[in-house]
Amino acid sequence: MTALSYRYVALTDTGLRRSTNQDSGYASDRLLVIADGMGGAAAGDLASSETMHIIRQLDRDLDVDALDALERAVHRANDRLAELIRKDPAVEGMGTTLEAMLWDGEKLAVAHLGDSRAYRLRGGTLTQISADHTFVQSLVDEGKISPAEARVHPHRSLLLRALLGRDDNDADLSWLQPMLGDRYLLCSDGLTDMVADDVIREALQSETIDMAATELVRLALENGGVDNVTVVIAEFVEKGADPDQHLSSADGQPQLVGAAASQARPRTGEATTDRDEPGEFDPEELRYAPRPPSSRRRLRGLAIALVVAALVVVAGSLAYSWTQKQYFIAASEGKVTVFRGIQANIPLLDLDHVEERTTITLASLSDFQRKQVEAGIEASSKDDALRTIAALDVRAPAPEPTETPTPKPTSKSTTKSTASETAWLR
Ligand code: CA
Question: Could you report the per-residue pLDDT of 259-287, keeping only the tens digit for each?
Answer without folding.
Answer: 999 854 444 444 433 434 444 445 555 57
